């Protein structure tokens, strides 16, 4: 079976020896994305993370609703939580109102009896933990090894949790208000406006879901996600989520055998299945966004891509050059993601190089994950840069052996290489290396 998969992968990713045409080339690109998504789904890692998020959801759904209820109540929208919870559980069919009522009753109980100073702290910690777990899953998909700092995590998570429910309630209220307006009712009775309004009514939920997914895909990963990529992945995930909701509703309607076997416990199983499906769609959309922005990963997937020793040295010099140039010019400091995009290399391949430079204190990471020189560039020698990446090229993920019983001829040959490098670089500092090119002077005009 593995041999057939390798042959199929070779047919997909190796350049064909015959012309495909525009339609064939486009179909081949689509097949590559479908193959990559299916391969990663079958591997099971996304499924395990989705099930883990189901467990976290069970612990945090009531505190999360209570937090949203507090925000909406403080802004005068205390009745806006019920439609949001009901829309989420709508695919459960006739059981949706019952489950919505139970969740809201738990929220009311939590609001009235538990929330003190300690209860409020526990509520906020539970809410932040579920968002943190979603970020860790998205960072894993995006091959991002460093999460947000604690200060950024608290401020950004809370801002989203405060603004998000308000925007969702406002959007649902706007759609409901527009549907009851007299001009809209008049247009609905006249063609072709009636058909157009019906079409917009069908596309309205898709637009809201797409916007929600796109926001999550652009905000949650601790890296820069391009807006067109987030929108494309959000549209795909939104369409799949709506289709999954329709299919799940029909499944619930025909699952009379499950109702007979599990009785009242069936609603819990159905809710767990629906929550798992939601998280799986969310993670698959994040994976699609990652592949859209980094198509070079389509073939390798989740396997680590590490540079060779020769390429690592060149990457280290390039990183120090770009960091020093931005520092000297006062421009925006680069991040690992922006450097990887500039150097056209995956972030996971550049990460060990940056880790080695940071371990040697040649560069430093700010609180916003931006990079700057570790000390005055005039005091950083290029030989130090090469030594850092050669001695610590594995970064923080591997242990580094620094001594071994090297045979004397190999030691002598390596010493000659080191001497050649030292003679070639001399006493050149990073400041000299990254200095702007001199402006050519025009020859003086002849008199």
The coarse overall form would be globular
How confident overall, as mean pLDDT? 76
Number of distinct beta strands: 2
Cα Rg: 28 Å
Helix run count: 18
| Main sheet record | 2 strands, antiparallel
Q: What number of structural domains do the residues give?
A: 3
Helix content: over 70%
Taken as a percent bin, the fraction of beta residues is under 5%
Order of helical and strand elements: HHHHHHHHHHHHHHHEEHHH
Distance between the termini: 83 Å
Task: Supply database-style keywords.
2 strands, two-stranded antiparallel ribbon, mainly alpha, Arc Repressor Mutant, subunit A, about 450 residues, 18 helices
Q: Can you offer a commentary on this structure?
A:
The structure is a single chain. The protein has 447 residues and is an all-alpha fold. It has 3 domains: 2-42; 44-297, no CATH class; 309-433, Winged helix-like DNA-binding domain superfamily/Winged helix DNA-binding domain (Arc Repressor Mutant, subunit A). The chain is 71% helix and 1% strand. It has helices at residues 2-13, 21-43, 45-74, 81-89, 96-114, 117-141, 150-179, 182-188, 193-219, 227-254, 256-262, 266-293, 309-329, 336-343, 347-359, 382-391, 408-425, 430-433, and strands spanning 363-365, 371-373. The chain has a two-stranded antiparallel ribbon. Strand 1 (363-365) and strand 2 form a beta hairpin. Helix 3 packs across helix 12 (266-293). The radius of gyration is 28 Å and the shape is globular. The model has no long low-confidence stretch (mean pLDDT 76).
């Amino acid at each position: 079976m593995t041999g057939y998969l390798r042959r199929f992968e070779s047919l997909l990713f190796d350049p064909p020896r015959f012309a495909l045409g525009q339609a064939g080339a486009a179909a081949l690109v689509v097949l590559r994305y479908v193959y990559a998504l299916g391969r990663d789904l079958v591997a099971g890692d996304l499924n395990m993370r989705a099930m883990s998020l189901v467990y976290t959801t069970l612990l945090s759904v009531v505190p999360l609703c209570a937090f949203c209820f507090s925000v909406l109540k403080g802004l005068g929208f205390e009745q806006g939580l019920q439609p949001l919870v009901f829309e989420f559980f709508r695919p459960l069919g006739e059981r949706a109102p019952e489950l919505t009522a139970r969740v809201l009753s738990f929220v009311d109980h939590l609001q009235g009896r538990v929330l003190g100073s300690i209860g409020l702290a526990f509520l906020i910690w539970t809410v932040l933990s579920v968002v943190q777990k979603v970020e860790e899953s998205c960072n894993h998909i995006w091959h991002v090894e460093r999460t947000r700092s604690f200060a950024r995590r608290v401020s950004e998570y809370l801002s989203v949790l405060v603004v998000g429910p308000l925007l969702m309630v406002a959007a649902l209220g706007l759609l409901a208000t527009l549907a009851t307006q007299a001009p809209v009712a008049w247009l609905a009775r006249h063609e072709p406006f009636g058909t157009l309004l019906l079409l917009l009514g069908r596309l309205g939920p898709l637009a809201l879901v797409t916007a929600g997914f796109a926001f999550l895909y652009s905000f949650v990963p601790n890296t820069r996600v391009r807006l067109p990529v987030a929108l494309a992945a959000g549209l795909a995930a939104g369409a799949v989520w709506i289709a999954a909701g329709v299919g799940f509703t029909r499944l619930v309607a025909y699952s009379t055998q499950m109702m007979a076997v599990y009785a009242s416990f069936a609603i819990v199983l159905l809710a767990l299945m629906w929550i798992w499906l939601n998280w799986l769609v969310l993670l698959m959309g994040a994976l699609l966004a990652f592949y859209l922005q980094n198509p070079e990963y389509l073939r390798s997937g989740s396997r680590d891509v590490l540079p060779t020793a020769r390429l690592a040295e060149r990457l280290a010099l390039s990183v120090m050059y770009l960091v020093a140039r931005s520092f000297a010019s006062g421009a925006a400091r680069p991040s690992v993601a922006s450097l990887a995009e500039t150097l056209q290399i995956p972030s996971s391949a550049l990460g060990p190089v940056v880790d080695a430079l940071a371990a040697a204190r040649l560069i430093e990471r700010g609180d916003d994950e931006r990079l700057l020189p570790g000390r005055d560039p005039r005091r950083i020698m290029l030989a130090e840069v090469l030594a850092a990446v050669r001695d610590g090229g594995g970064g923080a993920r591997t242990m580094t052996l620094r001594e071994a019983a090297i045979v004397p001829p190999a030691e002598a040959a390596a010493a000659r290489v080191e001497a050649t490098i030292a003679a070639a670089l001399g006493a050149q500092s990073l400041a000299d290396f990254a200095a702007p090119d001199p402006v050519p002077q025009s020859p003086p005009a002849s008199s």
